[in-house]
């Protein structure tokens, strides 16, 4: 089973990397760019076949190791 984590800075949190990408895109002529958030994408492969248990494990992984919940939001997807 595969767990896909999508992690990004929370709204209102300073994102210097996103700002740099935004400015670069604007300088390349993409004048419609309003804002950019740069986050993380993480794939975790597990041997578990029980989807409910995988969901609980994913939440625990995020809470304990992958996400700084003070400044980041996350979503995950389970792929069987």
UniProtKB/TrEMBL annotation:
Chief place where the protein resides: cytoplasm
Its job: Part of the phosphoribosylformylglycinamidine synthase complex involved in the purines biosynthetic pathway. Catalyzes the ATP-dependent conversion of formylglycinamide ribonucleotide (FGAR) and glutamine to yield formylglycinamidine ribonucleotide (FGAM) and glutamate. The FGAM synthase complex is composed of three subunits. PurQ produces an ammonia molecule by converting glutamine to glutamate. PurL transfers the ammonia molecule to FGAR to form FGAM in an ATP-dependent manner.
PANTHER family in UniProt: PHOSPHORIBOSYLFORMYLGLYCINAMIDINE SYNTHASE SUBUNIT PURS
Pathway: Purine metabolism; IMP biosynthesis via de novo pathway; 5-amino-1-(5-phospho-D-ribosyl)imidazole from N(2)-formyl-N(1)-(5-phospho-D-ribosyl)glycinamide: step 1/2
NCBIfam families recorded: phosphoribosylformylglycinamidine synthase subunit PurS, PRK05974.1
Biological process terms in GO annotation: 'de novo' IMP biosynthetic process
Gene: purS
Binding partners and assembly: Part of the FGAM synthase complex composed of 1 PurL, 1 PurQ and 2 PurS subunits.
The protein's name: Phosphoribosylformylglycinamidine synthase subunit PurS
UniProt xrefs under InterPro entries: PurS, PurS-like_sf
Organism this protein belongs to: Sulfurihydrogenibium azorense (strain DSM 15241 / OCM 825 / Az-Fu1)
Lineage: Bacteria, Pseudomonadati, Aquificota, Aquificia, Aquificales
Matches recorded under Pfam families: PurS
Family classification: Belongs to the PurS family.
Location in the cell: Cytoplasm
Cellular-component GO terms for this entry: cytoplasm
Catalytic reactions of this protein: N(2)-formyl-N(1)-(5-phospho-beta-D-ribosyl)glycinamide + L-glutamine + ATP + H2O = 2-formamido-N(1)-(5-O-phospho-beta-D-ribosyl)acetamidine + L-glutamate + ADP + phosphate + H(+)
Keywords per UniProt: ATP-binding, Cytoplasm, Ligase, Nucleotide-binding, Purine biosynthesis
HAMAP family tied to this protein: PurS
EC numbers on record: 6.3.5.3
GO molecular function: ATP binding; phosphoribosylformylglycinamidine synthase activity
SUPFAM superfamilies assigned: PurS-like (SSF82697)
């Amino acid at each position: 089973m595969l767990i896909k984590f999508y992690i990004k800075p929370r709204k209102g949190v300073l994102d210097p990397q996103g700002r740099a990408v935004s400015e670069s895109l604007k300088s390349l002529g993409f004048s419609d760019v309003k804002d950019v958030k740069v986050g993380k994408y993480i794939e975790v492969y597990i041997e578990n076949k029980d989807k409910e248990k995988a969901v609980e494990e994913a939440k625990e992984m995020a809470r304990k190791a992958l996400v700084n919940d003070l400044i980041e939001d996350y979503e995950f997807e389970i792929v069987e």
